[in-house]
Amino acid sequence: MAVPAISLPAKITPSKHPQFETFKHRLLRIADAGRLSGAISTLDLMSHRGIPADLLTYSSLLKSSIRSRDLHLGKLIHRHLLHSGLPLDAIVTNSLIALYSKCGDWDTACLIFDQMGANRNLVSWTTMISSAARSNMERTAIGMFCEMLELGFIPNEYTFCGVIQACSSSEFVWIGLVVLGFVIKTGFWREDVAVGSALIDMFAKNGDLCSARKVFDGMLVRNLVVWTLMITRYAQRGCGEKAIALFVGMCLDGHEPDRFSMSSVLAACAEVGSLQVGKQLHSLAIRIGLALDVCVGCSLVSMYAKCVFGGPMDDSRRVFEGMPEHNVMSWTALITGYVQSGHDEEALELFGEMIREGEIQPNHFTYSSILKACANLSEANIGEQVYAHVVKSGLTIVNFIGNSLVTMYAKSGRMDEARKAFEVLYEKNLVSYNAIVDGYLKNSNSEQAFELIHQIQGSDFGASAFTFASLLSAAASIGIMGKGQQLHAQLLKSGFESDTCISNALVSMYSKCGNIEDAVQAFQEMEDRNTISWTSMITGLAKHGHADKALELFHSMVAAGAKPNDITYIAVLSACSHVGLVSEGRKHFQSMKNDHGIIPRMEHYACMVDLLGRAGHLEEAIDFISSMPVKPDALVWRTLLSACRTHGHTEFGERAAREILYQEPDDPSAYVLLSNLYAMGGQWGKVAMIRSGMKEKSLNKEAGLSWIETEGNIHKFHAGDTSHRRSEEIYEKLDELATEIKRLGYVSDTSSVLHDVDDELKEKYVWQHSERLAVAFGLISTSALKPIRIFKNLRVCGDCHTAMKFMSMVAGREIILRDSNRFHRIKDGNCSCGDYW
DNA sequence: TTAGGGTTAG
User: Fold this and answer.
1) Which of A240, A245, A409, A433 would disulfide-bridge A418, Cβ 3.0–4.6 Å?
2) Which of residues 64-103 of A touch strand B (CB under 7 A)?
3) Could you give the CA distance from residue A676 to residue A682 in angstroms, rounded to a whole number?
4) Percent of chain A as helix, strand, coil, to the nearest 5
5) Is A194 (CB) below 7 Å from strand B?
6) Which strand (E) or helix (H) includes residue A751?
7) A42-54 pLDDT per residue, tens
8) Residue A8 — φ and ψ, nearest 5°?
9) Is A689 within a domain?
10) What is the pLDDT of residue A127?
């Protein structure tokens, strides 16, 4: 249908009415102050008295209604404009387009734009393109940009901003690169801050921080907004150190930080975990009068929470209490801080306080954090009560609340309920899938997990950098390297491979799948390394038993100026403990506190106990525990108990078990470790007592499970399993192996068998352990050239470890076993752990 | 007198 074009008047005759100037002045004042409700009555009064307003006034009023996104008032002004009978010029028509498109009435905007016909100018096109880009109609925006070019319009810096924004979506980045060619020719990217910002954002959103930085460095003019943008993107992409460095550069360049840049750099600082930098930023915020800003306040609360690593929340609390007013965000920031730093009970208390005060209603973020606290505490019952509140507030369709519910059930081991919550989710996203997959993995149901991973790949989430990172971590946790390699190949085509998060996920995937060589390669190929990259590599090397290389890499990390965090130190300490470098470990533990200001968490203390205990320094381990400034938790005692079991120290072992059971009376692992310890010493009476105690409490030892991937399928085995379709062949292979390795001198060590039964039966028990079934299956079903990769949910048993060394000799195959603790690379009768594990 | 860029909590 042809739409008649609006004809423009040759000249607008100015109003001659004596009161015109007075009213015009009043209207412009109203528009300036944004008090638009008065404008309509003034317009009414003017039309009543026969005083026409002019187009300039209407434009100002429209601009003001656009600024406040007030479509209702904008429409009233539009109606007045039509009644005035003034012939509309391009300027006021463009303002109308902007009004409707920015307020979400896209159809009306299009109608007005269509009616303009030949009178459309560059501003009309630009308005439409920018609005489409902002409303997630990237395809429309790009289509209009092309149409505009065909009509002969030359885009200016405003137009480029709009179209570049549209190209930020990963699907259209390739068009963005074509547009970049244009922009480079015009020089806009260097001279115009908005074009530069749009480009930086396009690259940053697609994970290419290097190109974003190149644009930033090439810009001739930089204002606070551009600096802030670059700082924010670094912070969001896990490059906290760079964000902080840039913030310093910004201040040196003479820009005083505002609430935006301050909030972002605080987030960066939280990510890096540097309390020292955080405190400096806090005092800067106080000096320049930003500390009382709500936004900055929230960032301070969460910065302190993240930087103390589970230590006291005093600083966060003080900032919160010093805030002049509280809103739902500040409450949520504090509650989330408590949850993130492991103070789940306090988080629940605070939530109760918030509800009791009743002035501020929790929102979806608050609920999500509280559900997480319930998950951590395995308090599914309280969680259900919280969820009742969610239902009442009508927030059930908020995706991540549903996800938190799934996580909560999954963490409490209630997988049926988790699955139900997952199935009824209003919208399933990757986080939902990750929550349920993770639940299945933790509860040893790899088939269900694997099936869901297939579903994820078949779904149309659209591959984003985040998708890849999640899929890689799913592949890593279950150990399906085939899937991980497929993802790696897809990544190379997708253009995400330069994303630091992705590269980190690749390093971790390869190392968790037992392929340390490819992990090292992925690490070496990285363009940008952050704390997580270094930490992942150090962890990988440590788990694979390359403690020397792990420590060497740690020194390179520090030399390269990257800042180790609490997790880095867990890797470093565990590297020392895996090879028994006791004094080196002690040194690192001191340096962590003294040189890097990292307050040790329970995990660090447990690492130290592990280091001392494994090396047989049990007395020192006990002394170390007594000297701890915080009350040792069950993890610390469990670590000691495990060391006592290794070294057969019954007295300390009993003490450790008492402490564990005092804190966690239903912990099956304490019973199992203790009964293993008694079994080692042949104290069968005590073993029987423990077992009957467990039976009374109906506690079950976590079942040992091993699995192996062949051609994308997971084959899972439990001890004595006969359910596999090739079970007969598997047992035949096992028998064959048994004969051969006994000839080579293998003698079965049955001390890990709990039962007081005769030796022959014990031998049968260990011989059918899940890891051996998996190895036998690997031998009959995989190529002789590749290593056999086995995964086990618990620690490998001593006898299986010995048997596998013999098996690697007779079969001439390398066996790579990942147990719950580390990797064992077994070749020609030797294991990379050096039998120290 | 019309068109463009940045912020906190999951």
Assistant:
1) A409
2) 66, 89-92, 94-95, 98, 102
3) 10
4) 70, 5, 30
5) yes
6) none
7) 888 888 888 888 8
8) -90, 145
9) yes
10) 95
Indicate yes or no: strand B within 7 A of the C-beta of A810.
no
Phi, psi of A789 (to 5 degrees): -105, 115
Higher pLDDT pick, A589 / A693 = A589
Token couple for A222: 């930089």
**Both A722 and A639 in a single domain?**
no
The CA-based angle A598-A601-A604, given to 5 degrees, is: 90
Based on its alpha-carbon atoms, the radius of gyration of chain A, rounded to whole angstroms, reads 33
Q: How many of the other CB atoms lie within 10 Å of CB of A154?
A: 9
* Tally of CA atoms within 13 A in the half-sphere of A247 that contains its CB: 29
Shared domain for A44 and A84, answered yes or no, is yes
Q: Which nucleotides of B are covered by protein (CB under 7 A)?
A: 1-10
CB of residue A295 closer than 7 A to nucleic acid strand B? yes
DSSP-derived letter for residue A833 is T
Specify whether the CB–CB gap between A837 and A543 falls below 8 A. Answer: no
Does the nearest atom of strand B lie within 7 Å of A800's Cβ?
no
What's the pLDDT tens digit per position in A319-355? Answer: 999 998 899 999 999 999 999 888 899 999 999 999 8
Question: Where residue A819 falls among pLDDT bands split at 50, 70, 90?
Answer: confident
| A window 134-173: Cβ near strand B (< 7 A) | 134, 156-159, 161-162, 165
Q: What's the CA gap between A625 and A621, in Å, rounded?
A: 6
Residue A646: CB atoms within 10 A of its CB come to 18
Task: Tell which residue, A258, A267, A214, has the closest CA to residue A237.
Answer: A267
Task: Please list, in sequence order, all residues whose beta carbon lies within 8 angstroms of the beta carbon of residue A699, skipping any fewer than 6 positions away.
Answer: A666, A668, A671
Distance CA A77, CA A214 (A): 45
> Do residues A476 and A453 touch, judged by C-beta distance below 8 A?
no
Domain boundary among A59, A89, A120: A120
Q: Mean pLDDT across the stretch A155-173?
A: 92
CATH number at residue A1: 1.25.40
Same domain, residue pair A687 and A711 = no
Asked if A657 and A774 sit in the same domain, the reply is: no
From A98, A120, A142, the end of a domain falls on: A120
Three-class SS of residue A708?
Answer: strand
Residue A322 lies in a domain: no
Which residue matches tokens 């890797």? A571
pLDDT band at A21 (very low <50, low <70, confident <90, very high): confident
In a domain, A679, yes or no: yes
Per the CB < 8 A criterion, the answer to whether A188 and A160 are in contact is yes
How confident is the model over A168-184, as a mean pLDDT?
Answer: 89
Quick one: A504 exposed, middle or buried, by C-beta within 10 A (0-12, 13-18, 19+)?
buried
Q: Provide the CATH number for the domain around residue A608.
A: 1.25.40.10
Among A403, A333, A339, A400, CA closest to A374: A339
A790 neighbors A775 (Cβ within 8 angstroms): yes
Task: Check whether residue A119 has its CB closer than 7 Å to nucleic acid strand B.
Answer: no
Task: Please count the structural domains in chain A.
Answer: 3
What pLDDT score does A419 carry?
92
- Strand, helix or coil for residue A817: strand
Distance between CA A737 and CA A804 in Å, rounded? 10
What pLDDT sits at residue A4?
Answer: 37
How far apart CA A619 and CA A609 sit, in angstroms, is 10
Q: Are A780 and A733 in contact (CB under 8 A)?
A: yes
Which amino acid belongs to residue A833?
Answer: C
Distance CA A98, CA A63 (A): 9
Q: Which phi and psi (to 5°) does residue A661 adopt? A: -70, -20
The model's pLDDT over A106-115, given as tens digits with 9 standing for 90+, comes to 999 999 999 9
Closest listed residue to residue A730, CA positions, set A783, A777, A766? A777
Residues A50 and A75 in one domain: yes
Angle at A25 between CA A22 and CA A26, to 5 degrees: 85
Residues A24 and A94 in one domain: yes
Same domain, A814 and A721: yes
